[in-house]
């Protein structure tokens, strides 16, 4: 009798322990979900704030008369990018089916199924901010001569089809650049792609589309005429500098936030490493460009614009390998990115490609650099996921293949949108609009000159009296 009671009591104790363990596990899961959601939303807010940085940078780079038009364009880009991501983009980028394709996703169109899987909501918002960032790069390269209607059409197609497909290849876990085979991550060419937060997927894609758009739409009127060069100088250096600080600040969400989780020591250490690398690489890149422009190349003086663009080049280049590089490798990446920015900008000028904000050099060329450097640097022995060729790794082939296929996909599909828009007269301002802009520019210049002369006379009279 007593033994039966003892066994029954023991069974009751075991059941209570199991129940307590289940409750504890449920509480831990809830706690982890809350921490992850807070972290992802905070990062998303910082990325969203980058739109203010892009707006300030563009406003500082273009002519005063076009400021309102371009800032309205930036607002429209954000609005249409989010709506396109809602309708098609997320489904193509992350809608992995039960029998997944390696090319594109096919579920969750218009956020179907999210109400039953509410953990997807934060992921949708996080990557929606990435999408708007990528297409904003294109708008900056084509600023001051692009028809708003035509660019909105391109934005919808880019954010609904072009960009999401690239995301699926690299970040969905089922795409051709990163999928699972027998439980091991792989790609078509060997190891999976290393592109932590989008040197290639976000920035190079935007830079390639910007290059195609800038070539198809053509340069601004009189852009390369020697007599009118003074008209295309920066409107506001303070706006440029402030925009750069805004973008750098937002980048601390763009890449450290890509860890997605924040409830383990491993994710915390990775995030700390990424933050350090995103401080060192832009510092090295910006300083190098500042020195080069002050001593070696034009304008051979302290150049705030070049300094700002050098910083942004370093940020783009480190975006790919930030989670696998040591800080010393981040500095090396920054130095190389400064050289790439200076060289590519000069190349585009020689080819007469009109890029208002140097977005093609900063995001396109330095985004490509970010992919390739991730195939060279990153020690496998550090256990951060590096697989660099200089350390005996086999990563470079995947990075090269990824660069080629992303450039081809984005370039060809962007041309397939831009060229018909141009033929339909929807891509560029009509000639009358450009003549009115030219007249307005002359009027602004005349007013500025008269104002300067009046101030000079007032100053002289005051001095003489």
- Radius of gyration, Cα only, in angstroms? 26 Å
Note the main sheet: 3 strands, antiparallel
Report the CATH C-level class of the domain at 48-70 and 135-148 and 173-429.
Mainly Alpha
* Low-pLDDT segments, ≥5 res: 455-465
User: What overall geometry do the principal axes of the alpha carbons give?
Assistant: globular
The CATH superfamily of the domain at 48-70 and 135-148 and 173-429 is known as Ammonium transporter AmtB like domains
Based on helices, strands and strand pairing, what is the structural class? Answer: mainly alpha
Strand order of the main beta sheet, please?
Answer: 1-2-3
CATH topological fold name of the domain at 48-70 and 135-148 and 173-429: Ammonium transporter fold
Multimeric state: single chain
Q: Kindly state the number of beta strands.
A: 3
Please bin the fraction of helical residues.
55-70%
Order of helices and strands: HHHHEEEHHHHHHHH
| Terminal-residue CA separation | 119 Å
Report the CATH architecture of the domain at 48-70 and 135-148 and 173-429: Orthogonal Bundle
Per DSSP, what share of the residues sits in E-state strands of 2 or more residues?
A: under 5%
> How many separate helices?
12
What's the pLDDT, averaged over the residues? 87
